């Protein structure tokens, strides 16, 4: 793979597939290509007093425009609004705040960061999980998802609780108090969210990802749990992207995972939940010994 570096950052921030490097049009940009080093280097002219974040942001946008018809057209939809950016991890302090257009993350092999919350309840002594079903209008259409899940926004300043607070309100109308971790809905107490784990993975997206097929994703996911009462019923707030919330017994959740009914990274978060709750045990899966290790993939980045 090819290294992707930015300015004078001490380490690479991404790793690119050779086929993506070859297909991208780089001419007349601030991206320098070194075939001998297998390295792409974003190195725009920056003078004293310049806004480095804005300069790099413009360079990424210009590259997306130049390649609108390349790479399976993955930039085409994004270019209509140009509003969705992802923070870049692994930066030295002096470069903190740099962002990248979301569809370019998988081309440059940037680490993605997201926050997921598992909502569950207990009925008749058995765990039941509230799951979200994605609509037909989004990537991974009709797949299952956590009730609350989303990518970290640049405004979150790498603070997972800030992401959780925003996503919980946007997707389920839940209010998360970041100081106490108490959760309310319509001013009524729902429960207390608990910070559980951080999982990591490194994969390549398949055809189900649509225009992002073939993109690579080194990922980090912060996971939270929220236990609610058996009578609580959540309601989706984004009907254009969520078909509905469904309460499933844990046995059905396990079956859905085996049948690949979950969006991939959300499925990993759910797998982590089931392992933590003892709902998958040694003997349930011939690869049980590999599951924990697979949820803690070592990523080739030094500043995370």
Automatic annotation (TrEMBL):
InterPro entries from the UniProt entry: NUDIX_hydrolase-like_dom_sf, NUDIX_hydrolase_dom
Nudix hydrolase domain segment(s): 100-270
Record-linked CDD domains: NUDIX_Tnr3_like
Gene3D superfamilies: Nucleoside Triphosphate Pyrophosphohydrolase
Superkingdom per UniProt: Eukaryota
Name under which the protein is recorded: Nudix hydrolase domain-containing protein
């Amino acid at each position: 793979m090819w290294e992707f570096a930015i300015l004078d950052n001490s380490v690479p921030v991404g790793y690119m597939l050779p086929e993506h490097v070859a297909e991208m049009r780089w001419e007349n940009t601030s991206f320098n290509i070194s075939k001998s080093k297998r390295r792409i280097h974003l190195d725009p002219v920056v003078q004293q007093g310049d806004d480095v974040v804005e300069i790099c942001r413009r360079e990424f946008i210009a590259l997306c425009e130049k390649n609108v018809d390349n790479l399976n057209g993955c930039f085409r939809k994004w270019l209509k609004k140009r509003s969705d950016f992802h923070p870049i991890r692994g930066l030295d302090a002096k470069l903190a705040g740099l962002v990248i257009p979301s569809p370019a993350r998988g081309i440059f092999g940037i680490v993605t960061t997201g926050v997921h919350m598992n909502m569950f309840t207990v009925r008749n002594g058995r765990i039941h999980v509230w799951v979200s079903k994605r609509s037909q209008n989004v990537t991974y259409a009709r797949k299952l998802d956590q009730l609350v899940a989303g990518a970290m926004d640049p405004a979150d300043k790498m603070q997972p609780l800030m992401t959780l607070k925003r996503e919980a309100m946007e997707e389920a109308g839940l209010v998360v108090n970041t100081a106490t971790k108490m959760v309310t809905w319509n001013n009524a107490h729902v429960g207390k969210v608990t910070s559980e784990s951080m999982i990591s993975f490194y994969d390549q997206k398949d055809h189900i990802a649509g225009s992002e097929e073939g993109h690579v994703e080194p990922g980090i996911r912060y996971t939270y749990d929220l236990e609610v009462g058996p009578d609580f019923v959540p309601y989706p707030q984004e009907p254009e992207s969520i078909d509905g919330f469904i309460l499933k017994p844990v046995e059905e959740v396990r079956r859905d995972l085996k049948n690949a009914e979950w969006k991939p990274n959300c499925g990993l978060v759910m797998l982590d939940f089931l392992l933590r709750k003892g709902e998958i045990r040694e003997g349930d899966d011939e690869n049980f010994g590999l599951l924990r290790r697979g949820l803690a993939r070592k990523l080739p980045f030094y500043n995370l």
